[in-house]
Every structure is written in C-alpha cells, then in structure tokens.
Design goal:
A five-stranded parallel β-sheet has the order 3-6-9-1-10. Strands 2-11 form a two-stranded parallel ribbon. The longest helix has 20 residues, at 4-23. The termini are far apart. The mean pLDDT is 90. The chain has two domains: 1-79 and 111-198, P-loop containing nucleotide triphosphate hydrolases (Rossmann fold), CATH 3.40.50.300; 224-326, Helicase, Ruva Protein, domain 3 (Orthogonal Bundle). 47% of the residues lie in helices and 17% in strands. A hairpin with a 5-residue loop joins strand 4 (87-93) and strand 5. The chain is globular and about 75 Å long. The chain is built from 16 helices and 13 strands. Helix 2 (30-42) crosses helix 12 (262-278). It has 334 residues and is α/β, with parallel strands linked by helices.
C-alpha cells in the first residue's frame, strides 16, 4: 500500500509530466495551463475565453494529444442542431434484410470534448450540453445513455465578436468548474511562438496519462482532508457574494444581482485540494482557496445594471470580497 508521501509524489510527477508535454506546444500562460489541469484532476469542465488567435483551441487539442483518451471537437455554429451533438436514431438494414432503428452516437460521446466557440450555437443546441455536463449522461432515442468516464468539456468563446452569438445561459455557465480568461502573450512568449510555428522544427508531444491513472488521481484528490476553518472560509466567500443578505459583502450589495451557487463552494473545495497536492501538501490551506477563487467565481456572479454601466467586472468584485472576508472567523469577531 502506497504511503501518503508516495501518493503525493506520484500526483506531482504526473502533473509535471502533463504540464511539460503541453509546454512543448503551448507557449506561456502558465496560470491558464494550471487552471486547466486543476479542473482536469478535479473532474470539472472549463470555459476558456479570449480573443481569436491566443491558442485556446490549441491548448485543448494539445491536452487531447497528451491524454490517452478519446477526443472529439465540435465546431459550434448557428445551424448546429442538438442531434448533431448527441446523436440520433437512424434506419439501418440488417443482414436478413429487415430494417430497424439504431442509435448513432454523436461527438459528445468522448472522454474529452472540445466545444469550440460554444456561444455561437442557439440556446436550443446549447441546452443539449446541460445534462451531459452535470449528469454525465444524455437522454436520446428514448433512452438514458451514460457518457464514458472520465468526462470533460473544454469550451472556448470569443468575448469581443458578439454578432451571431448567443450568451450562455446561467445554468450552463454554472456547470463549468473554471472560467479562464486567456490574455495576450508577453514579448518573450510572442517571440517563442514565432520560433515554434514559423520554422521547420515542429514540436510533438507524447501521451503520458491514461484513463485509469486519471481516475485514480481524481480519487486521491477527494481523499485530501480539509480542516473545518478552511471549509468555513470557502463557505463565507460564497455567502459574501449573495446580495441583500446578512452575509453579503458591501460590494456585492452594490454591484451584484445574484451570487455564487453551492457549486461555487464545491469548486473551491476540489480546486483547493488539487492545488494543495501540486504544492506537496495533503491538506488544504486558506491560501489554496483564495488562489482559485477568481477562476471559480467569475462566471457565477451576475452583475446588476449599475455594475455594467460603471464597467465593474466580476474579477474586481471577487478581489474586493477576498479583501473583505476575513481568513479566520475569530478576526471577524475581534
């Protein structure tokens, strides 16, 4: 039986291998890569937002090459229908000449699904993702069909081109574990991108993580203990985002219509556990919760009209909430 130290070492080594392979192709954006891998080992979905050309699709495609899992890419467009994603019943002819309905699985039946430009599909098509993302199953052809574990949806969207797009409904946004905002590369990173993409030597990656290992490491993540005061801190962060309540932070009362759901607290816990393991600890610290708060909450807070008029972002509100909510409850009573 492996000791705790051996389990932590295995996790860190595996995490480093995956990150190293991704780094052969995807330049920079270490926080984005870390956020993607935290969600992967926590078993959650990721929404990547950024202007075109920053490598969002490249990151997910590279991750698909590093993982020994089935991978599918769905290019979301306004004319995409739910059956194009989930699958449909087709009339098939048997060997004896008789015909029968057979269900043909859609691209959603893969371990890792890249939903490219997810906000370009109509609400009807986007709703086909809800059951898959939460229940890890789809209802099609009159039957409930389980999706292959582990199951991940990594979606991309463009924040500036709003023509021909449909905002993701709050119910779907809440199902994303993290929302990661991809920014512009630095001067050095831009130079390295040119070196890798405009010269003859094209980087290649190896598969370093299979299905069974991923599921074992996901189980290890859930075994990481969390002290009661750390859980309480995560709960108080979420409650502070609920406007017009006794626990609301002043900035939430001023700029929010709705705050984080219980899924937000679950995300803080699981992400905190993964981060603790990556730092060689088998316990979650307050810093772990604070470090993942922005990615876990930014897409779950609903701004009011005043915030939109003043250009206030959810990232700004989360930063203020982190300042206002004390790390220890004793500090609040002092």
């Amino acid at each position: 039986m492996s000791t705790t130290e051996e389990k932590i070492k295995l996790f860190r080594d595996t995490y480093s291998k995956v990150k190293g392979e991704i780094g052969k192709v995807f330049v920079g954006h270490e926080e984005i890569v870390d956020g993607t891998l935290i969600a992967l080992f926590a078993g959650g979905h990721v929404l990547l937002e950024g202007v075109p050309g920053l490598g969002k699709t490249l990151l997910v495609r590279t991750l698909g090459e590093v993982l020994d899992l089935s991978f599918s890419r769905i290019q979301f467009t306004p004319d995409l229908m739910p059956a194009d994603i989930v699958g449909t019943n087709l009339v098939m002819e048997r060997e004896d000449g008789r015909r029968e309905f057979q269900f043909q699985k859609g691209p959603i039946f893969a371990h890792l699904v890249l939903a490219d430009e997810v906000n370009r599909a109509t609400p009807k098509t986007q709703s086909a993702m809800l059951e898959a993302m939460q229940e890890k199953q789809v209802t099609a052809g009159g039957e409930v069909r389980r999706l292959p574990p582990p199951y991940f949806v990594f979606a991309t969207q463009n924040p500036i081109d709003q023509e021909g797009t449909y905002p993701l409904p709050e119910a779907q946004l809440d199902r994303f574990f993290f929302k990661l905002v991809v920014g512009y590369p630095s001067r050095e990173e831009m130079t390295e991108v040119l070196n890798r993409t405009t010269e003859s030597n094209q980087p290649t990656v190896e598969k370093v993580l299979d299905r069974e290992t991923i599921m074992d490491l996901q189980k290890l993540v859930r075994e990481v203990p969390v002290a009661s005061h750390v859980k309480d801190y995560a709960v108080r962060l979420v409650l502070a985002s609920h406007p017009k309540t006794e626990t609301a932070a002043p900035i939430a009362n001023q700029y929010l219509r709705f705050g984080g759901s219980p899924r937000a607290a679950q995300t803080l816990m699981l992400a905190g556990k993964v981060r603790a393991l990556t730092h060689g600890r088998f316990n979650v610290a307050l810093d772990d919760i604070a470090a993942v708060a922005t990615a876990a909450l930014r897409h779950r807070l609903i701004l009011n009209f005043e915030a939109e008029a003043e250009g206030i972002t959810t990232d700004h509100i989360i930063t203020e909430i982190l300042k206002e909510v004390p790390r220890q409850i004793e500090m609040a009573e002092a």
